[in-house]
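User: what does the whole thing look like in 3D?
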Amino acid sequence: MIDVTVAVNGSVRRAAVPPETTLLTLLRDNFQLTGTKLGCDVGDCGACTVIVDGMAVNACLMLAAQTDGRQVLTIEGLATKDKLHPLQKVFEESGALQCGFCGPGMLLSAKALLDENPEPSVYEIRDALAGNLCRCTGYSKIVEAVQDAARMRQTPQAHEAHQLEMHGQDHG
Amino acid sequence: MKPFEYVAARDSQHAVALLAEYGSGAKVLAGGTDLLADLKAAQHSPRVMVDISQAADLKGISLTDDGLRLGALVTHTEIMRSSVIRDYCPALIEAAHTIGAVQTRNLGTIGGNLVTCVPSMDSGPTLLALDAQITVVDLGGQRRMPLSALFVGPRKTSLADGQLLVDIVIPKASVGKPAAFLKFGLRKGQALALVNAAASLWVDGERTTFVAPRIALGAVAPTVIRAPKAEAFLAGLTISPEAMDKAGRIAASEAKPISDFRASADYRRDLIAVLVKRALATAYERSTAQKEHVQ
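Assistant: Here's the predicted 3D structure for the full assembly of 467 residues, as structure tokens:
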């Protein structure tokens, strides 16, 4: 067994796991953080995307042992108790998700992008989300939602004006 | 994954000692994006996983007396963000950008990509076109060899048990050499190359003839290969679109592509001719743009 200590969503968590345990299994089975989804389990679908030390990675392709001493952000750490993250708010308002299975990974890839590049172009958004597969939406609303969230982060007022213009009503 | 033992190496020396201790039972883990995906489908795991991902001396990009050094653990994302690489070897950024998606580029390493030795690897052609060297260490010491000597066959390198790839060096003579990389896959994101190609060239003082042209191809032979006949055809020849076109067709005749569910051999040969021509044209444009580097 390997002892692993990881800062998950700001809290220090410990576990003793077999060496072949992936970060994904550690999060879901040891820490009961099941928001991170198990999809393909070979790094193609992005459903297990989490942010490790600021970088979007596939949790299925890291060993838990490799994350010892590092910071991990999962979907459970994105919103605060009473406030959604701007990306979550925009995804919800604009119906960017349908079944939602790709959502946690999609949101974390988008967050990693906006942290690095606050004003991404459509091309940059598509490039950043190329590792997150969605079988429902056709991606357009997701890309638009990330653009909206970027605007909202820049100036919350501009975001509201944009929403009014787009939808003709105040979403509050 | 089937169970294995895990040990993290502090640095390359520690890794080599561990590899010597465990022999053929050991497997090196770097970024893990290929290895762990493969192990999930495998009937057996290696006895011991030697994790080198935290070995600091295997990281970093730097200009040295030998040339441009990339530690084996440099990730594809680090290549894309490196100002040194942007200034001196931008074709490496083009190649890195075509690998997987952000998540895989954040973990996957250039050394790992090379030692997978799959014919369709995207790191190989540009490095071959820039005459890259590699450093390999084992308990007996370290030695430098051409990158081409690493590639033996599909998924087969010349590395013996106990040997570790330490770094990749683009020799001084190729640093700043105009080059380009192109890949054709079935999608823009996360697709394996049907064909990839890289070209590099210098131009003479009059800017009229090809000097030291290099052409390398991926996914069209058992390993990434050079196209020596096409290179010999171009060397010393007057620069023209027709010459680039002819070189592309010669390169296509040098490859041994297979037909599979992704594409036929004939289609791949046609792609080689087009990609080589375009890579040469782009490299030539760059020789104009970065005049100050031209020898």
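In plain terms: Residues 9 and 95 of chain A are 26 Å apart (CA to CA). The beta strands of chain A are 2-8, 11-17, 49-52, 55-58, 71-73.
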